[in-house]
Specification:
Blueprint lengths: L1 H21 L20 H6 L3 E4 L9 E4 L23
Antiparallel strand pairs: 1-2
């Protein structure tokens, strides 16, 4: 009798745990990225836009395509490191 009571209590706890997990709010899907203004343009239209560049692969079966120019990262301004005093007493 005790075994049956213990097993039913364990099953009840398991069901409570599963139902709580099922009721959690699901995360929304990430927003789709904006399409590039250069995507799908032919060579002349691509070269006409200042923000686009025409890519011609050197090898393989990939076809030439138009893509957005990469923007170089801003150079990080390095702050001069302060030198620690050289004659610090050792403990």
């Amino acid at each position: 009798m005790r075994t049956l009571l213990g097993a039913s209590a364990a099953a009840a706890m398991l069901l409570l745990g599963i139902s709580a997990y099922a009721q959690e709010a699901k995360k929304p899907a990430p927003a789709p990225k904006a399409t590039s203004p250069c995507k799908g343009l032919d060579e002349t239209a691509c070269k006409a836009k200042a923000e686009c560049q025409w890519i011609t692969p050197k090898k393989g079966k990939q076809k030439p395509y138009c893509k957005l120019k990469t923007v170089p990262k801003k150079a990080k301004t390095e702050t001069p490191k302060k030198d620690a005093p050289k004659d610090t007493p050792k403990k």
